[in-house]
Amino acid sequence: MNRIRIKLFATLRERAGVAELEHELQPGADLASIWTELVREFPRLKGNRDAIAYAVNEEYVEAGYRPRDGDEVAFIPPVSGGMAVSSSIGPITIVRTEINVAQLERVVSDPGAGASVTFTGSTRAENAGREVIRLEYEAYEPMALKELRKLAEEAYRRFGLKRIAICHRIGVVEIGQISVAIAVSAAHRGEAFEACRFAIDRLKQIVPIWKKEHFKGGEIWVGCQTSHPGSVHH
């Protein structure tokens, strides 16, 4: 009997009421058909408007991909990429404690750099007219680290950086605390600024890290809003 392991995250995990399950693999089944079977098994997933992405063994794939026996399949809701230059990239980390921004800035220091830029994202007390209490982050950690490194490598090449380091925090992040930090150094300030902007924008597009906003009167997975009645509590 062929079987795969399915992983669910963030809003999908909450709707299904399970984070991981074993699934019998039917001959010729692709990820789209497996998702359809999953929706039948967990009706609360039905009718969601999320743009589901697919990953097999921690790599993004298309809906028509046919997994094999023993594969790990992840259905990924919307999120809130071997080089000789690897010593110039990193650390690329996910942590559960406060981010040491000064350490990242020291790491990217380079005698050939004319500019260093650091971006930090922190929890603010208000969003969309709501009084925010705290944020909570969840990640598909092995894949998230791979994608963070890929985007760091892409930024390094695209902007001719000297060094780049990224750290993202998961778990509860209180008001005023930092959830993500990106530090880069480059020969010129233009490339350094552009690289930071590219990295945070790309991170929010592709890295499987999700943000739940806890606010007065309810909670919501940011970026995963649907018409499902359990999405927001009043």
What is the beta-strand fraction?
35-45%
State Rg: 19 Å
Could you tell me how far the N terminus lies from the C terminus, measured between alpha carbons in angstroms?
46 Å
Helix-strand pattern: EHEHEEEEHEEEHEEEHEE
Largest sheet: 5 strands, mixed
What's the count of strands? 14
Q: What percent of the residues sit in helical stretches (DSSP H or I)? A: 25-40%
Mean pLDDT: 89
Number of helices: 5
Overall SS class: alpha+beta
Overall geometric form: globular
Give me the oligomer status.
single chain
Write out the strand line-up for the largest beta sheet, numbering strands in chain order.
2-1-5-3-4
Uncertain segments are: 81-85, 225-234
Overall description:
This protein has helices at 10-16, 31-41, 101-107, 141-159, 189-206, and strands at residues 3-8, 20-24, 53-56, 59-61, 72-76, 89-95, 115-122, 126-127, 130-139, 163-169, 171-174, 178-186, 209-215, 218-222. By secondary structure, it is of the alpha+beta class. The strands form 3 sheets. It has a 5-stranded mixed β-sheet. Strands 8, 9, 11, 13 and 14 form a 5-stranded antiparallel β-sheet that branches. A 4-stranded mixed β-sheet has the order 6-10-12-7, with helices on both faces. Helix 4 packs antiparallel against helix 5 (189-206).
